[in-house]
Inverse folding.
């Protein structure tokens, strides 16, 4: 049987949510896993993770979100686990997530699962947002990630070998998007989507990704995120000229925002909002 670890990133702002995180771990139908915590600045971090009999390992990392995530993957590549199930410390997950991840990782290198949006109190706001648009087994390649994203270190599971991908660290606002584009492109991989399990994704003000109403401020944020992302990847030799031109065109249209009517009848993928106003 695969040796599995759940991986989480812990930081001071996540402390209010640690009880729900532990509850999600203890409710897993498959309890044959260990927990790895990458700690960024929480003092006496072990006091928050009294979850016997689940074994817990702690690693201290610091820096930007992107730096910590990239450094953590280098650590994970050296450990003796077969697969990793990622869960952000302010999120939760369905009780069958480890079960489903273990099963699918026997066949696939990268598994991305569906999201259910919860609020700060943990109450469900939008269930199964990705499966409203894509089906079980949908193949996510780097081309799919060109101008939108559904793959993050919160709803993804990987085999250990994937963690050894050489990743660069350039200034971006959406580090998971940047990381997984590189992973899928450099390793010529396809991520398999499953709706059989869920990450309960917490929507709050500190998240820059999420499902929100489309306002001018939101659109300006998405454009900025996309431009930084495309320029960072161009710095790695990828061609994003067309995508950058689209964001520039979108900025010009933003000058007439008060005359625009933007309505999205589907759950947009992360950073997809601008795609609805190009024409």
């Amino acid at each position: 049987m695969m040796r599995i670890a759940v991986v989480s990133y812990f930081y001071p702002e996540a402390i209010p949510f640690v009880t729900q995180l532990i509850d999600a771990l203890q409710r897993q139908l498959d309890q044959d896993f260990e927990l790895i915590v990458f700690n960024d600045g929480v003092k006496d971090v072990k006091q928050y993770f009294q979850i016997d009999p689940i074994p817990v390992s702690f690693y201290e990392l610091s820096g930007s979100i992107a730096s910590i995530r990239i450094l953590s993957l280098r650590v994970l590549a050296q450990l003796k686990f077969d697969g990793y199930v990622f869960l952000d410390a302010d999120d939760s997950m369905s009780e069958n997530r480890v079960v489903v991840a273990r099963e699918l990782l026997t066949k696939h290198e990268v598994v991305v699962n569906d999201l259910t949006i919860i609020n700060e109190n943990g109450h469900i706001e939008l269930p199964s947002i990705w499966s409203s648009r894509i089906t079980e087994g949908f193949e996510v390649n780097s081309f799919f990630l060109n101008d939108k994203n559904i793959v993050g270190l919160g709803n993804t599971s990987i085999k250990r070998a994937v963690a050894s991908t050489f990743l660069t660290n350039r200034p971006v606002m959406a580090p998971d998007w940047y990381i997984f584009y590189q992973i899928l492109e450099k390793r010529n991989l396809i991520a398999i989507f499953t709706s059989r399990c869920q990450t309960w994704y917490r929507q709050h003000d500190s998240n820059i990704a999420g499902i929100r109403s489309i306002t001018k401020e939101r659109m300006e944020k998405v454009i900025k995120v996309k431009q930084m992302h495309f320029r960072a990847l161009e710095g790695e030799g990828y061609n994003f000229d067309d995508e950058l031109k689209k964001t520039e065109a979108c900025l010009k249209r933003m000058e007439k925002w008060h005359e625009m009517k933007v309505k999205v009848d589907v759950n947009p993928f992360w950073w997809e909002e601008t795609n609805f106003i190009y024409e």
User: Anything to note?
Assistant: The mean pLDDT is 91. The longest helix spans residues 216-235. The chain has two domains: 4-202, 216-276.
